[in-house]
Q: What sequence folds into this?
């Protein structure tokens, strides 16, 4: 059982809910670590095929807790600070390495480290009123936190990312939708159910092939075209050896919808 967030499962979909609504769901040293360990553990969990991450009380996450994180950081030595910054980055790496697709359902405030959780997800659904900000510079830090300078330009473009990381300003849901940060916007009372519907649809698909797709989406950032095509050729040849590939063919021949089992 999780100690620092809510963990619920429905079939093969897990929902993680950041659950400190009275403070807009800030992150603490302990919640960073538990989230990191949870996503690492999902790499070995064959019962969960997709994940939704959201926040309680009408907000996603306000980022690192000012009192429980920022205050103590001011008293730390350089080695202690580096252990902390590496640990927060490890959370993002765990999310990207987690084979299950992750969908962030974002309402209200989505700021700082909370915005990085959203960015590290595979897809993002928002509400028309949600506000997202990479506000590291507004507390005297670089915009280069938890992989922001790598991930954000790839999602919304270099120029837009540079503006947001230099200024720390919030961007609107409509801006995020136009830029490709959000996949879709829904009313607050539909947001979580829409994210879970998509997660369930993904979970019903070919799990091994989805994990391979996620791995290639991540690894090909650092590849040239020739290298990427070769990597995909090898990945697809592996997928062709799965039983789900056979099931899809058999269903097509029988004019039926394939039922994938993830192997």
A:
């Amino acid at each position: 059982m999780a100690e620092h967030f809510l963990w619920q499962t429905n079939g093969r979909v897990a929902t993680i809910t950041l659950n400190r609504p009275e403070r807009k769901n800030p992150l603490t040293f302990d919640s960073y670590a538990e989230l990191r360990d949870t996503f690492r553990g999902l790499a070995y969990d064959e019962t969960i095929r997709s994940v939704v991450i959201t926040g309680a009380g009408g907000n996603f996450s306000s980022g690192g807790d000012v009192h429980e994180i920022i205050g103590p950081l001011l008293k730390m030595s350089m080695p202690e600070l580096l252990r902390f910054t590496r640990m927060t980055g490890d959370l993002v790496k765990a999310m990207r390495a987690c084979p299950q697709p992750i969908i962030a359902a974002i309402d209200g405030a989505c700021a700082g480290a909370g915005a990085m959780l959203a960015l590290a997800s595979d897809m993002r659904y928002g509400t028309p009123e949600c506000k997202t900000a990479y506000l590291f510079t507004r507390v005297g830090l670089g915009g280069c936190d938890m992989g922001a300078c790598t991930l954000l330009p790839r999602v919304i473009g270099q120029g837009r990312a540079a503006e947001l990381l230099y200024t720390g300003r919030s961007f609107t849901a409509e801006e995020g939708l136009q830029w490709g940060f959000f996949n879709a916007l829904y009313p607050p009372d539909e947001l979580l159910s829409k994210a879970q519907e998509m997660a369930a649809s993904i979970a019903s698909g070919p799990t091994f092939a989805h994990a391979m797709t996620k791995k290639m989406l991540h690894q090909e950032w650092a590849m040239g075209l020739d290298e990427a095509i070769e990597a995909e050729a090898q990945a697809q040849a592996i997928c062709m050896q799965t039983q789900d590939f056979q099931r899809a063919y058999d269903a097509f021949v029988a004019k039926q919808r394939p039922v994938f089992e993830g192997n």
